[in-house]
Amino acid sequence: MKSIRIIAILVSLLATFNVATGQIKTPPKKINAKENYTHSATHFNFPKFLFGDYERKSIYSFDKENRNVGVSYGKNQNGERTMFSLYLYPAGDGYEGRLRQEYQNSMQSVVATRKEGLYATQNAVQHKGEKYICNGFEAIFTTENNELSQLTLFESGTWFYKIRITSNRKDTTLLLDLKAKILQVFDPTILADLTPLNEKTDVYFAKAAFRDSVLLGSAMGSAFAKIDWLMENVDKKERATGFPDLYLNFHIAGLKAFMEFQHRFNYKKSDFTENYLRQLQLISDADFLNEFVMEQYWMILIIPENIPDKYDEYLKWKSQNNITINLNDKFYVLSFRAKK
């Protein structure tokens, strides 16, 4: 446990983190550049033209320091209209749930501009560089203008890196090929190399975890089990770019340890702890832990291919059982701080 550092008790669990939401907090400011534009914070260079026929259309800053920026390119040839935008903005320390939360924020921004809901095909993505591995999440969907669009978000150390591609050509291969070209020029692992994350894990416990000794012990056992799982199953090249909590088995390891602690000591439980552990055990005994985690985290996960498809069966079982516990109500948060 040398890589673990317990930091503090948190009244508001995420208040300690400088969470970048990607939302515009100040009016966007247009940046004028006649030729190349270099983003001073990351040294990414955005030329006037890319890939021969994509012209830079705009550069916008969303903060006073010009750290949060968006750069757009486009082409309109022979009836084909294709645009892509790259967004770079600070992400702070790498804490548990950071990528999932920011991906949800990004998708919510897309939905907010629509008159109706959105159906998207989504999946986890990875980009491997020479020194680091960046995790991301991606969605492909149709816009209200009946164009095909792709949103990809990576966490890259202390940076978020987002790509949005839209084309009137309904060709998924076009989007994927263009994304591959963009990643060759603007590599998210280079961003991670600017400020990689520390391997030492900080553990922040919420005030809610101190209801009784069993709940606190369960939370501690769960946190340590997750850390052990990461150290055994995730490459340090990947841990340096973000807290890799997308893995389904990471959460399963934590839940199993959470349930196990109650059997070690004959401590008295509060009614809250008794009910929480009872429901969790009920889910486990029904063999639906995987499906429970999938539902709780909206499928924004890396799910092993050998997991049997029992999700519909789980939803039917849940409708017949009173399950009220919520994994998004955290008893603790794990974090990799940025190296200084």
Question: Short description, anyone?
Answer:
The chain is of the alpha+beta class and 340 residues long. The chain contains nine helices and 15 strands.
Q: Which range does the strand content fall in?
A: 25-35%
| Outline type | globular
Computed Rg: 22 Å
Number of domains: 2
CATH topology of the largest domain: Protein Transport Mog1p, Chain A
Average pLDDT over all residues: 90
CATH class of the largest domain: Alpha Beta
Q: Which class do the helix and strand fractions yield?
A: alpha+beta
Q: How would you spell out the order of helices and strands?
A: EEEEEEEEEHEEEEHHEHHHHHHE
Distance linking N and C termini: 22 Å
Number of strands: 15
CATH architecture identity of the largest domain: 3-Layer(aba) Sandwich
Sheet with the most strands, sense and barrel status? 9 strands, antiparallel
Helical fraction: 25-40%
